[in-house]
Please model this.
Amino acid sequence: MPHFKLSVQLNALKLFRKRDWIVYLLLFILMGVTVYTGMATSKGTMVTVSINSQVRYRFSLQQEGQHAIEADGKKLMELLIVDSDAKIIHSACPLHLCERGTLKQTGALVCVPQKVIVVLEQNGEPVQISDEYDLITG
Amino acid sequence: MVEDKERLFTSAKLTFLSVLTALAISIGVIESLVPPPVPVAGFKWGFSNSVMLVILLLLGRKEALTAAWIKVVVASLITGRFLSPSFFLGLGGSLSSVYLMSILMKRKFGLIAVSVSGSFVSNLVQLLLAASLFVGSVKVFYMAGYLISIGAFTGLLNAIIAYGGVKWLKTIGILS
Model:
């Protein structure tokens, strides 16, 4: 018995087909929309840090240096602001994936295990909302 | 005689599926050792998707879905990310992308279009999962443009890798 020959669905083996244009068009539009909104958001000047979908810190891009990000009395990470860009360092999460890339590069810094998200916003005052303040305002 | 042939067909399928799944797992594990392009847990280059394309081409949807979840579970066990957020993001991403790719392949779209839209849907599902289950904020979509651009690039590469791989299997005489 020679080699076993397997030839299922091999008629699909073509890199391009005529009907592909609809896929490329859709992807091009979506890419344009997302890249445009990403460019628009990267023009902001306020670095906003949300923990568990609540805004906890807001820094200006001019506030260079390391800022500790804390929640419930525990230090989660440090936010490094340098050259009007921001970066997460010394994160307490296990995989340290959030420490890769900068804010302007990717549009957002996300630490999934600690539910932290850092984005740029156009306006707003620098704030540092502590847990006590949160209790008073509810 | 017919029975023998059918049994041979099944075992050949099983062998193909096992070898290709093992290949996908090793690609996934090696990938987790190199820095990913995007700073979010669970986002990877996604080159094991080229193996999923080959499985879809040679075997079919059921087999590819099986390979996809086995790949995610075993690769996450090896890299120590089992049941972590990145495991769930990876599982949702690869199952949805394999499903969409199988539909597009059945509708006779070209390989590059299939692969690129698969990577796009995988990114979208991962962002949705991250936003709804883990971070609780739609702001993760701020990085969608970056992700989709990288996804389009790796999707293109995956299609070419899968095309070349199947062509090579044909030239060495395993496929007719």
Observations:
- The two ends of chain A are 78 Å apart (CA to CA).
